[in-house]
Amino acid sequence: MSAPAANAPNSSQAELDKFGALASRWWDPQGPQRPLHELNPARLGYVRERLPLAGARVLDVGCGAGLLSEALAREGAQVTALDLAPELIDVAKLHLLESGLKVDYRLQSVEDLAAEAPGSFDAITCMEMLEHVPDPAAIVRACATLLKPGGQLFLSTLNRTPAAFAVAIVGAEYVARLLPRGTHDYKQFIKPSELAAWLRAAGLQARDVSGLAYDPIRRKAWVGGPTAINYLACAVKA
Fold this sequence. Notes:
By secondary structure, the chain is an alpha/beta fold. Helix content is 37%, strand content 25%. The protein has helices at 13-20, 34-48, 67-74, 86-99, 110-116, 136-146, 162-175, 192-201, and strands at residues 57-61, 78-83, 103-107, 121-127, 147-158, 204-215, 220-223, 230-237. An eight-stranded mixed β-sheet has the order 3-2-1-4-5-8-6-7. Strand 1, helix 3 (67-74) and strand 2 (78-83) form a beta-alpha-beta unit. The two termini are 27 Å apart.
């Protein structure tokens, strides 16, 4: 995973186009984002157990069309949410008319926001996003800049292991067809040791790494167990 050239955007247009094409069915629990719908309660629970959400200023980085953003807002958080796919931001804003919730959706990079508003957030969530950008370490650095002292960063991603390749790519994309083919690139998966190094370099202290298990038959996800496939991490800014 090499860093992009200086001043180059830390995003892949192919990735943005791929997810932007799914925008119209993002909120369909039976659609191509079904696994995200079923992972969302576990992701929210992981955050809620570690942070009183009522009144907290929370940033959701790589928010897609707002599944986690709205869930955080429903818990009473003041949510700002970022994505670089305009189609996703448009759908996210439209869905607020249905949900009646309040989220500040922005078509903006986390690096740009970090330059504008350092030290602004009590917590940041960045779920299933790091494995889709050219320089994930830069995302971690920007998040660290945006956190208040004592603020927490919550991450989820895929481990770079044979088990993750078998389950997340072969199983989910080709056998069960839970995800569109090409959703993931195994080379972009991230080992917990790599993530821990990026956190330390950004001045963050890792607090927890937990497996994120998913059973597509029972359509349920839960926190715990091995970290060989999906995992969650929490870090704090000293």
